[in-house]
Amino acid sequence: MAKESMIQRQKKRERLVKKYAAKRAELKEIANDESKPMEERFKARLKLAELPRNSSPTRLNNRCQLTGRPRGYYRKLKLSRIMLRDLASKGQIPGMVKSSW
């Protein structure tokens, strides 16, 4: 189990990314538009830099939905390798069986 503070920090980042997504996309569009004047593009970059740092989607980590573990993460199932193995052994993931030979 991951530290509760790390899980809460990740949830806060997810909220901020969702909150500022539209504004961030709008400013990026202005900043990358070659047809606009240089001053306007520069102002858009400055406003983009003023947004909270944690509102950037690159600061998000993939974490297990059950334990919050950041490593050994399966994107398709949103679980860590440990929880995947545990749930598969219990037969709680449809179609997945622990192999033995």
From TrEMBL:
Magnesium found in the keyword field: no
Name of the molecule in the record: Small ribosomal subunit protein uS14
Keywords: Ribonucleoprotein, Ribosomal protein, RNA-binding, rRNA-binding
GO terms, molecular function: rRNA binding; structural constituent of ribosome
Primary role: Binds 16S rRNA, required for the assembly of 30S particles and may also be responsible for determining the conformation of the 16S rRNA at the A site.
GO biological process terms on file: translation
HAMAP family xref list: Ribosomal_uS14_1
Domain of life: Bacteria
Keyword Membrane on entry: no
Organism lineage: Bacteria, Pseudomonadati, Pseudomonadota, Alphaproteobacteria, Rhodobacterales
Signal peptide location: none
Originating gene: rpsN
Alphabetical list of InterPro entries matching this protein: Ribosomal_uS14, Ribosomal_uS14_bac/plastid, Ribosomal_uS14_CS
Subunit structure, as described in the record: Part of the 30S ribosomal subunit. Contacts proteins S3 and S10.
An annotated GO cellular component: cytoplasm
Family the entry assigns: Belongs to the universal ribosomal protein uS14 family.
